[in-house]
Amino acid sequence: MQRRLDKSDLRGCSQPIMTARNIHYEIAERTHGIAVGGIGAMHALARRIGLIDAIDRDLALLKIHLPYHESDHVLALAYLPLCNGTCIQDLEVLRNDEVFLDALGARRIPDPTTAGDFCRRFNKASIEVLQDIINDTRLRVWAGQPGSPSSSKPSLTWTVFWWQRPASASKGWISLTMAPGVITRWC
To answer: For residues 61 and 73, what is the distance between their CA atoms, to the nearest angstrom?
Structure first.
């Protein structure tokens, strides 16, 4: 890579730098385009490292899983900022995007109201359980890397959610805030 970025190597400057000619496109009868093309890969990664199974096994917030499991709710909220979502209401845009749903292999994802209801089920203990699930998964992934240094170094950046209840708020008020790579504590 250093050789490719060497500013003193001026070979080939008589023509444009981008000269790819071996790109092939195949178009089927039905084509779909997605603005967040990496979301399928992120979901495959979450499944491969065992995060989805760990959430469904260890985070017990729902009595009945019809139609969603805990991992469906958590991942829908975690994927939201990856898809340029800025608030929980942006789930409505994603749940109406057929290509997005196809990338996840989902018939549907939770709507904003259902996601809000799910968020209100959390308490201090369940937030700590979710943080432990994410941390245990992260450490397991990091430990599996060849020649891995200290397992305290982060190998993946997850979006962590936290809830705040100001003293002036009425009973039942809750807000959801998203920040990539931020680890928080319940206050």
So the answer is: 11
**CB distance 80 to 91 below 8 Å:** yes
**Two structure tokens written together for 176:** 């959801």
Cα Rg, the chain, nearest whole Å: 21
Q: Measuring CA to CA, how many Å separate 132 from each of 8, 34, 55, 95, 104?
A: 50, 33, 10, 28, 25
Q: Please say whether the beta carbons of 70 and 162 come within 8 A.
A: no
User: What's the pTM?
Assistant: 0.65
Share of the chain above pLDDT 70, in %: 64
d(C-alpha 177, C-alpha 128), whole Å: 16
Is residue 184 predicted with pLDDT exceeding 50? no
136-172 pLDDT tens trace: 999 888 887 776 654 454 444 444 444 444 455 444 4
Question: How many whole angstroms separate alpha carbon 108 and alpha carbon 93?
Answer: 12
Residues 6+ apart with CB under 8 A from 161: 77, 78, 119, 176, 177, 178
Omega before 112 cis (within 30°)? no
* Interacting residues of 175 by C-beta distance below 8 A, sequence separation 6+: 163, 164
Query: Is residue 186's pLDDT more than 90?
Result: no
Mean pLDDT score across all residues of the chain: 76
3-class SS of residue 175: strand
